[in-house]
């Protein structure tokens, strides 16, 4: 055994046979998508590698979100959240598993996954275990859902509108439909949990929200520094969305989906 | 067939080694409980050692956003 971080390759498999058949019945829309229809003749090699990298990265991030949703589900049980709220959240890990498959298959459609090295033990930040169960749940849910998932919904919708090929359009449309419920869930939880938290715990939740917001801004700042317009020649096949359109949508999403509702609840000032 | 010790299975995502390699920097263990420690995170934006914690790291910037990069840069950012 080693004390250092693990270094593992991100690859995925299906179990197959009866297990896969049962899975397909749970989410039949996956196989109904127009797989095998991407025509990539006019796509430049660098653009194709970039697209493979992005879809592989998307699969990895969906994988991380699956871990986050699963962690949140445990926390909801531990704090004895309302059963209907828990039940709503119980669907999210399956949604994320489907999204992982969709993004992985998109990468494979484009020629295969690219190389992602990672430590499976460091995929998400857990709440401090010294916190009480309700505060732990609020800490995680404000970061994962009220910030992370909420800010993504308008951006995903924008990417969906930008996608003209039926396959990425179907993939993004599925993700957009699922994520809509994920974004609103976080605020439903907060409306139940916040009145039960102490002043110190509410302050902690506010700090957790700020940590998440700041992390998103750091990534956007880096992305803005790398700005490039959408390449016309590859846009049909790869559904590029230019940096300017992305940045404008991102700023609106942060304001309307994150900052305003968190301020309205007194979570942040 | 269940119980026969055999499983068919198949690869869903196969990585091409050496192509656009990314090393994911692991997140921290937990959010800090102490007020002073967590408040300091707001000032970490310009600290290179922390600026991209939890995000995939790679080489030269590409700067082009496709459908998937939206996901990579927004929705599934889990600080």
Question: Mind explaining what this structure looks like?
Answer:
The complex is a heterodimer of chains A (269) and B (79). Chain A has 269 residues and is an all-alpha fold. Chain A contains 9 helices and 3 strands. Chain A has helices at residues 17-26, 45-78, 83-90, 92-109, 133-162, 166-193, 199-225, 235-238, 243-264, and strands at 8-9, 12-14, 116-118. In chain A, strands 1-3 form a two-stranded antiparallel ribbon. With 79 residues, chain B is α+β, with helices and mostly antiparallel strands. Helix content of chain B is 18%, strand content 11%. A two-stranded antiparallel sheet of chain B has the order 2-3. The longest helix of chain B is centred in the last third of the chain and has 9 residues, at 67-75. Chain B starts with 9 loop residues before the first strand and ends with a helix. The chains are: A mainly alpha (269), B alpha+beta (79). The interface between A and B is large, with 110 and 60 residues.
Labels describing this entry:
heterodimer, A: 269 residues, mainly alpha, 67% helix, globular, B: 79 residues, alpha+beta, two-stranded antiparallel sheet, 11% strand, disordered C terminus
């Amino acid at each position: 055994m080693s004390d250092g971080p693990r270094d593992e390759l991100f690859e995925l498999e299906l179990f197959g046979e009866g297990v896969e058949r049962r899975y397909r019945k749970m989410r039949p829309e996956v196989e109904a998508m127009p797989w095998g229809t991407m025509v990539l003749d006019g796509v430049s090699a660098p653009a194709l590698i970039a697209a493979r990298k992005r879809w592989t990265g998307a699969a990895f991030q969906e994988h991380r979100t699956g871990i986050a949703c699963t962690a949140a589900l445990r926390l909801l049980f531990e704090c004895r959240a309302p059963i209907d709220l828990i039940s709503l959240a119980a669907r999210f890990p399956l949604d994320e598993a489907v999204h992982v498959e969709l993004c992985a298959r998109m990468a494979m459609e484009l020629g295969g996954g690219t190389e992602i090295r990672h430590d499976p033990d460091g995929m998400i930040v857990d709440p401090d275990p010294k916190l009480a169960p309700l505060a732990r749940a609020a800490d995680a849910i404000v970061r994962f859902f009220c910030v992370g998932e909420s800010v993504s919904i308008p951006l995903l919708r924008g990417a969906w509108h930008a996608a003209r090929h039926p396959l990425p359009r179907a993939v993004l449309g599925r993700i957009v439909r699922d994520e809509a419920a994920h974004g609103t869930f976080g605020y439903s939880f907060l409306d139940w949990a916040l009145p039960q938290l102490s002043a110190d715990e509410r302050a902690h939740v506010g700090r957790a929200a700020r940590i998440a917001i700041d992390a998103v801004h750091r990534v956007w700042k880096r992305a803005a520094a790398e700005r490039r317009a959408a390449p016309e020649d590859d846009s049909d096949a790869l559904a590029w969305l230019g940096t300017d359109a992305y940045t404008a949508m991102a700023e609106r999403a942060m304001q309307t989906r994150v900052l305003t509702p968190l301020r309205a609840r007194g979570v942040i000032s | 067939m269940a119980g026969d010790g055999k499983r068919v299975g198949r690869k869903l995502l196969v990585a091409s080694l050496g192509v656009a390699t990314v090393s994911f920097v692991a997140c921290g263990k937990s959010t800090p409980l102490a007020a002073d420690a967590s408040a300091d995170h707001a000032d970490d934006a310009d600290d290179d050692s922390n600026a991209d914690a939890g995000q995939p790291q790679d080489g030269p910037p590409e700067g082009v956003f496709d459908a998937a990069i939206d996901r990579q840069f927004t929705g599934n950012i889990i600080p």
